Amino acid sequence: MKKEFELNYSLSVLKAAIEATVDGLLVTDRRGKVLCYNQLYVNMWPIPGELLAHARHQAILGYCAGQLRDPEQFLRSIEEIYATLAPESFNVFEFRNGRVFERCAKVKTLEGSDIVLVWSFRDITERRQGESYKAQLAAIVESSNDAIIVKDLNGIITGWNAAAEELFGYRSGEIIGSSILTLIPPDRLEEEDRIMNLVKSGKRTDHFETVRWGKGKKSIDVSVTISPVKDSAGNIIGASKIARDITQRKESQERIEYLAHYDLLTGLPNRALFTDRMRIAIENASRYAFRLALLFVDLDRFKLINDSLGHAIGDKLLKAVAERMQSTVRQADTVSRLGGDEFVVLLGRIHTATEAARVAEKLIAVLSQPYQIEQHELLLTASVGISIYPDSGKDVNSLMRNADVSMYSAKGQGRNRYQFYSEDLTSGADERLRLEYDLRSALARDEIFPVYQPQLELATGRVVGVEALMRWKHPERGLVSPASFIPVAEDSGLILSLGEHILRESCLQARQWHEQQGFEGTIAVNVSAVQFRQNDFTDVVLRALADSGLSPECLELELTESVVMHGVESATQKMCFLESRGIKLAIDDFGTGYSSLSYLRQFAIDRLKIDRSFVRDLPQDTDAKAIIRATVAMGRSLGLRVMAEGVETEGQAEYLRSVQCDESQGYLYARPMRPDDFEAWLKGRKPDFRGSRYQMAQS
Ligand code: C2E
Ligand code: MG
Ligand code: MG
């Protein structure tokens, strides 16, 4: 009884042991009869109950093999074990659904020399996956574009991928086992210690920008992410570093930084940097009670050089100007280019305004020395406006504005000079700036148009021509006088488009009058010096003629004496060319510009227009009479027709007739008119016609 109990007891123990193993177990005899198995074995496959009831291994095997990728190989291996009874064998097989089992078979001899086979199966799917995951990870690390370095807690390098080889220049074979210090410049050691302390406390540091040494101590800008490396028990055993080369990004950042603060052309600080420095200078000056001077420097008529010689020459000239300015002021002063031909100079720490005046004089003198740019010798002058802190402004904006205003005033006084700020300057310059601003959009808004004033032969009263005069109908100010906006248009270059517009419009109008009104006279168009100096001026004129269909003899260009006298050679060339095309030329405002008649002889001129100021004082003023008599006589002797401008009274007309002046123009006959009014005037020819809505109020 006791024996039976003991037997039962040990059987239970065995059964418990079999059930408790981590493997699926099956025991068969040498012919395949199933002797015992555990539940795990049944579940693993799983094997249906009725099949187990059969209790023949071969039957079970047939069922099992059906689930495998390579059933034949599986069956063969087992057949072989039954055939050879090899004491121990081992293999791995895969299921069609991806699971992987490891099989072990052991042949055991029992006491009665019976043989049993113990089959154990283990599901190693996860272990397999882990292994392949590791392999994938290694491949990723190896092919990463970022350098990946692993080091232990002693700072010894234990891992080094291909990108690290590339970035630092060390092969993994030569660097693994070395200290990480090889890569760290001395001034970054402290930083490295700090980060390693973080690593030791389990923290990671992301995208930290620093410098590392490559082979040959070559500095490399890198962004590094450092994380702790743990063993399977979770203990920190080292650090991994992912480093990315940011040299290029650093460079472009520096470049952007530079562009944000410096002028590309001259290398001078730009407006942003300049105002920054000014702000700091103002703070210092207010703290230590000294003065600052702001000099606004504008090159006179720089635009002409740019337009006539091209931007490449213009740019070189600006560079030369920048260099001269820089070398004229002290190291501590800031020279900046605000854009175009506008420069500013900040004189830090002055005591009296005289010091600023001295610098301005020096700048003006230095800038007016001739420049040799390629084959051109160029002359330039500058106008300087000065504002002083705290006298003419206490903040950046007001100092800038007031220096700017003063500069305009210096220009207005004839350029090539300096002007200190004073309060009464503000209104004038503001006005001028506003005018220029509005003028920029005037053409597009159709606010610019010509009006026409007839020109008559004094002896017969015949209409020989009509002068086109520009008008600007400002949306708020109403009609703005050309006398006030043409200088602004000339300084800003806007005159080119405005002038061309009037020219084209006038040619079209004249052509129409020729065809529809039987009008036979010329159309006279005023030309600014700025327009005339353009290289393509003659092209512009020919194009206007061609596009309108007006014949060249019907166009007369009114030039002032200064246009003809300055830049004589190219002026002569242009005038001869225009004459050769049949276009007529007149000298406007004659008598105001000091040109001698004999000098004018060399130019191809058709008409002189005696300035209104001489006509005004007729017929009483003897000087005026003498001048007019002389002009008419000399004009006639040169074969020119002479016209008097601004004829307002019959008395003036009478005198002009008496000295045999050829033609006249003025309010006596008609004011400048819009085309409709001119047509009506032509038809009616009322001598007392007093004109039109488009006459400026004359002072
Ligand atoms: P300007 O060419 O000498 O034109 C004659 C000016 O005298 C015109 O002034 C005209 O309206 C005015 N006027 C005519 N008859 C009389 C008169 O009997 N009495 C008085 N007191 N004035 C008379 P406006 O139209 O104001 O033009 C002024 C100047 O503006 C012109 O002088 C001319 O130099 C310039 N200008 C006008 N239109 C243009 C243009 O299209 N292009 C250019 N570049 N300049 C122009
Ligand atoms: Mg004129
Ligand atoms: Mg005139």
UniProtKB/TrEMBL annotation:
Domain PAS positions: 133-203
Its UniProt entry gives the catalysed reaction(s) as:
3',3'-c-di-GMP + H2O = 5'-phosphoguanylyl(3'->5')guanosine + H(+)
Q: Name one GO molecular function term.
A: cyclic-guanylate-specific phosphodiesterase activity
Q: Do you know which Gene3D superfamilies this protein is assigned to?
A: 3.30.70.270, EAL domain (3.20.20.450), PAS domain (3.30.450.20)
Pinpoint the PAC domain residues.
Answer: 204-258
One Pfam annotation, family name? Answer: GGDEF
EAL domain location is 432-686
**PROSITE patterns attached to this UniProt entry:** EAL, GGDEF, PAC, PAS
| SMART domains to which the protein is assigned, alphabetical | EAL, GGDEF, PAS
Q: Which GO terms describe its biological process?
A: cellular response to nitric oxide; regulation of DNA-templated transcription
Domain GGDEF span(s) in chain numbering? 290-423
User: What top-level branch of life does the organism fall under?
Assistant: Bacteria
Q: What InterPro entries does the record point to? A: Biofilm_reg_signaling, Diguanyl_cyclase/Pdiesterase, EAL_dom, EAL_sf, GGDEF_dom, Nucleotide_cyclase, PAS, PAS-assoc_C
CDD domains attached here?
A: EAL (cd01948), GGDEF (cd01949), PAS (cd00130)
Task: Write down the PANTHER family for this protein, in alphabetical order.
Answer: BIOFILM ARCHITECTURE MAINTENANCE PROTEIN MBAA (PTHR44757:SF2), DIGUANYLATE CYCLASE DGCP (PTHR44757)
**NCBIfam families annotated for this entry?**
GGDEF (TIGR00254), sensory_box (TIGR00229)
Query: Per its record, how is this protein called by name?
Result: Diguanylate cyclase/phosphodiesterase with PAS/PAC sensor(S)
Question: What does the organism's lineage look like at the top?
Answer: Bacteria, Pseudomonadati, Pseudomonadota, Betaproteobacteria, Nitrosomonadales
